[in-house]
């Protein structure tokens, strides 16, 4: 017999899984029952439109505005919005900063997001391998220039400290040996055209430059290795990788301070079955619906904007008039709120939490409410926030919480 899903629980599930929704969608989930509702949210992601630009390779600011419009338009319209909230998680975990990545173009950023989308639900080891081969990451953390004569340690260090094990589970020697293993992992353009002649619509591809690679013997976490792939395999087998990332997933979807027993249980699910099954486990777990974890997560600016515009019935992320300047206003608003897409402030990503609700970022959220003046009749806020009774409810603290 199918487990029931109450309407309030369906609202909570939809808000947490997708960061957007309307009352009729929550009712449909409730009618499906718990397991079927979760399965419907965790369907394979709908592909996003291709990135195409007519601006030059030097106009990276305009490319970023176009990328932001492209992604949020997709998030507002896709039938698989839960996949986009997961893309945001991976974007904040496997960070790359567009403005700090010399040589990168919008096509490289969008290709990385396609990796997060297509492989984000799968086995963690497969995603990790794809990220390690991703040109945006190789450029951002300087591994694309790493040679046997002078191995660059940026990628090797962040791979362990921020992306897999966390601090305290590796030595400085492990960083050095890993950096040697990844020498020669670089990028190239399929067309062979680079520099000022580069087409911003042509993405880099991974390339192994054999004569840059250090072929000497290496030891990583106590095991002999030769290549970067072997380093990734060791990290993929390490239980701490799943405890570290599993805890971050629980902080993102359940509570900023997840209970230790759930962290332990979730790590085992993540290691044995992958991210989709981890989310299915979490979304069907009684603890997910416990009162202690309701309204415990502050919406990020992107989640706030997408959720509110979707509640207003918008299919494009328009702020104010549709006068050709909407993309600039959107990016400016997100910058004031503290979250510019494709540009986390540091390699650690966004701090999140109460930092989203400092004076200036909070004022920007309220200004967005004012920008929706005239759209009040179309606002469907039941999923956006608990206890909504109309547009004036948006000034309440509940409007800021998932």
TrEMBL record:
<protein>
    <recommendedName>
        <fullName>DUF1800 domain-containing protein</fullName>
    </recommendedName>
</protein>
<dbReference type="InterPro" id="IPR014917">
    <property type="entry name" value="DUF1800"/>
</dbReference>
<dbReference type="Pfam" id="PF08811">
    <property type="entry name" value="DUF1800"/>
</dbReference>
């Amino acid at each position: 017999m199918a487990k029931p899903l109450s309407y309030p629980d369906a609202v909570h599930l939809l808000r947490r899984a997708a960061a957007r929704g309307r009352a009729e969608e929550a009712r449909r989930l409730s009618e499906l029952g718990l397991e079927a509702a979760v399965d419907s949210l965790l369907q394979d992601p709908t592909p996003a439109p291709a990135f195409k630009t007519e601006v030059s390779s030097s106009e990276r600011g305009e490319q970023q505005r176009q990328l932001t419009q492209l992604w949020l338009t997709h998030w507002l319209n896709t039938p698989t919005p839960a996949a986009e909230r997961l893309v945001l998680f991976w974007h904040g975990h496997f960070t790359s900063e567009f403005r700090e990545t010399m040589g990168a173009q919008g096509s490289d950023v969008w290709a990385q997001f396609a990796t997060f989308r297509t492989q984000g639900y799968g086995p963690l080891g497969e995603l990790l391998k794809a990220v390690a081969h991703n040109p945006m990451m190789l450029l951002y953390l300087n591994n694309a220039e790493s040679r046997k004569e002078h191995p660059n340690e940026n990628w090797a260090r962040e791979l362990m400290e921020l992306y897999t094990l966390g601090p305290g589970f590796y030595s400085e020697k492990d960083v050095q040996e890993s950096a040697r293993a990844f020498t020669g992992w670089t990028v190239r353009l399929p067309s062979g055209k680079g520099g000022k002649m580069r087409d911003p619509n042509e993405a880099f591809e991974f390339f192994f430059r054999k004569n840059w690679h250090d072929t000497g013997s290496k030891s990583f976490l106590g095991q002999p290795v030769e290549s970067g792939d072997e380093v990734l395999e060791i990290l993929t087998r390490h239980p701490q990788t799943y405890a570290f990332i599993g805890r971050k997933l629980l902080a993102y979807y359940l509570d900023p301070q997840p209970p230790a027993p759930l962290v332990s249980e979730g790590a085992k699910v993540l290691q044995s079955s992958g991210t989709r099954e981890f989310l299915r486990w979490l979304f069907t777990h009684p603890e997910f619906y416990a009162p202690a974890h309701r309204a415990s997560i502050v919406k990020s600016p992107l989640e706030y904007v997408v959720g509110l515009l979707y509640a207003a019935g918008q299919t494009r992320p328009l702020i104010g008039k549709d006068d050709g300047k909407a993309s600039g206003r959107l990016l400016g608003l997100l910058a004031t709120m503290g979250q510019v897409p494709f540009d986390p402030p540091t390699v650690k990503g966004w701090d999140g939490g109460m930092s989203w609700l400092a004076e200036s970022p909070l004022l920007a959220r309220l200004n967005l409410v004012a920008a929706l003046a005239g759209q009040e009749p179309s606002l469907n806020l039941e999923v956006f926030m608990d206890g909504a009774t109309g547009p004036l409810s948006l000034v309440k603290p509940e409007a800021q919480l998932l």
